[in-house]
Design a protein that fits this description.
With 445 residues, the protein is α/β, with parallel strands linked by helices. Helix content is 51%, strand content 15%. It contains 20 helices and 13 strands. α4 runs antiparallel to α14 (265-280), α4 (86-99) runs antiparallel to α20 and α19 packs across α20 (424-437). The longest helix has 25 residues, at 109-133.
């Protein structure tokens, strides 16, 4: 089975490759094609993968190419893990937003809109090419903003594109752990959009264990989200929000923490990864060891400003091991081998959330089999969550409309309607600033 990874020179590709190396049996991936526009990054990541596979006789064969059509032909699965504009673009997104006093995070608020406006036209082109060159392939989208990009690609690929994220998996794992349950035996009732969802229940043996957690302030304060949001707020919500909702519920504090930070997250990752790619290109350096050191630092500093503003402390050791590659592998196995499983994924709504139309991409538990991902029925969200989901989905739709029409006015509308942008004048300045900073937004007129 052939797997093509778009953005194959990306830093997290070795996580996927490492997961593939543990897979056994029929229907496993035997060939990996890495596609990237940057030969240097491809070379560095190829070295890491080569060291990972040392001593494993049946490791998948890895090839690299900068030709997109060549990469797609013959693919059974396509992972889309691109970053349009690179980390320099992310750093600019953050800097421009913070100068206006609003959040510039890559998937939330102004930064997420700017990133989406750059990425959607590229994702559209990829989806059209997949439909033409590999019509039987399944596309698994890692590219952020994951829900928005998955929805853009679904307009060409329908249900054959599925978005994934490790945030809901990590949240469910932490809740199960603090309740003394096996995460593999727990059903996580999680509903929302990508980076905008809530755990409303955690069922083990058919019984919901979440009320026990919400009733115990000590237990609530013993894991990452409890420290981040505070037990009192979680009890008021009656649910455990995705960590990215900290940007909404504690927006002022988060913006201030980011403004006071020495560097934005994008600037930190840009500089950190530049050191990694330079080291990994040297023949006297172990590329795998350099990657391991860089990854450990990356995971330990994840959402550091949010944790600092909330006094949440350091991340726990169990939460430093990633997870999205495990979701990707489980998804591929379910489709390729008809190994039925339940995963939290980004898929078309198809009536799951009554407040949204059928084509809206939502993040919900899905039954996965050889026919793809099928969203499970979900109870309606409470009014406060429904309002936020509908508002953010409306913004995503404006981003899609702006990309399709090349309209600067529609892009301004997307910025202005976002709950974390508080002024139409700010929205206009954001749009002007982003268009001036990013060649990838020159299409907006």
């Amino acid at each position: 089975m052939r797997l093509t990874i778009l953005g194959g020179g990306g830093f997290r590709v070795p996580l996927v490759h490492g997961a593939l190396l543990t897979d056994r049996g029929e229907g496993r991936v035997t060939e990996v094609v890495l596609h990237d526009l940057d030969d240097r990054r491809l070379h560095a990541v190829s070295r890491v993968l080569g060291e990972q596979a040392a001593g494993i006789p049946d490791a998948p064969r890895v090839t690299v190419t900068t030709d997109l059509d060549e990469a797609l032909r013959g693919a059974d699965f396509v992972f889309s893990a691109i970053r349009v504009g690179g980390l320099e673009g992310r750093a600019a997104d953050e800097r421009i937003a913070l100068a206006e006093g609003v959040l510039g995070q890559e998937t939330v608020g102004a930064g997420g809109i700017a990133y989406g406006l750059r990425t959607v036209p590229v994702a559209d082109d990829i989806a059209r090419r997949v439909a033409r060159l590999a019509p039987d392939a399944w596309v698994i989208n890692f590219t952020n903003p994951a829900g928005l990009v998955t929805e853009a690609m679904s307009r060409h690929l329908g249900g054959r594109v599925i978005g994934i994220c490790d945030s809901p998996v990590g949240l469910g794992r932490r809740i199960a752990r603090v309740l003394g349950a096996d995460p593999r035996e727990a059903f996580v009732d999680y509903v929302g959009l990508n980076h905008l969802g809530w755990v409303r229940g955690l069922r083990v043996g058919g019984r919901d264990q979440l009320p026990r957690l919400l009733a115990d302030p000590a237990l609530l304060g013993s894991f990452e989200e409890g420290r981040l949001f505070g037990p009192d707020w979680l009890r008021s919500l009656g649910a455990i929000p995705n960590e990215y909702l900290h940007y909404y519920y504690f927006n002022r504090e988060t913006v201030r923490a980011y403004q006071e930070a020495e560097r934005t997250r994008g600037a930190f990752l840009r500089d950190q990864q530049a050191r990694f790619y330079e080291a990994a290109g040297r023949p006297d350096v172990s590329a795998l060891a350099a990657w391991d050191r860089t990854r450990a630092e990356r995971e330990a500093t994840y959402m550091a400003e949010n944790r600092e503003s909330a006094g949440a402390g350091e991340r726990e050791e169990e939460d430093l091991s990633g997870g999205y590659e495990k979701v990707a592998l489980a998804l591929m196995r379910a489709i390729a081998r008809d190994e039925r499983t339940t995963l939290i994924l980004n898929v078309r709504n198809d009536g799951t959330l009554s407040a949204l139309d059928a084509d809206a991409v939502v993040e919900v538990p899905c039954l996965v089999d050889s026919g793809g991902a099928h969203p499970l029925a979900a109870a309606p969200l409470p009014a406060h969550a429904t309002g936020l989901v509908c508002a953010v989905k409306a913004v995503e739709r404006e981003v899609l409309a702006a990309a399709e029409s090349a309209s600067r006015a529609t892009a301004v509308k997307a910025f202005a309607l976002h709950p974390l942008v508080d002024s139409v004048n700010v929205a206009r300045r954001l749009a002007d600033g982003y268009i001036a900073a990013h060649p990838g937004l020159a299409y907006l007129r």
